[in-house]
Design a protein that fits this description.
Length: about 130
Amino acid sequence: EVQLVESGGGLVQAGGSLRISCTVSGSNIDNYIMGWFRQPPGEKYRGITCISTSESITYYTDAVKGRFTISSDSAKNTMYLQMNSLEPEDTAVYYCAAAKPLLKNFYCSTERGVYGTWDYWGHGTQVTVSS
């Protein structure tokens, strides 16, 4: 059974940095397209960034482009999200997710962004940015 566990969330001041992690167990992380979603208070969750190592694709939504960096470490079976220049609007529960790459250029693409129904989800980690 594939399981995803996030860690590293917390409280940070505006302008600060934080790195959150997503560790995959039960399978090799390179078998999946990986992504980060977030759900701000009172809003729906949405995908903000994704990485497909098999297709050499990374995508960032405009809200985080230039500030956040997604990466994947195969040796540790872990995905990371480095978040810099954090803003109060980044306050949210952050979820990592994995999708089986059944379709090419579908779940993670420059055309559609973070898209489709993802197969596995973590329980989320809270990130709070104070002003």
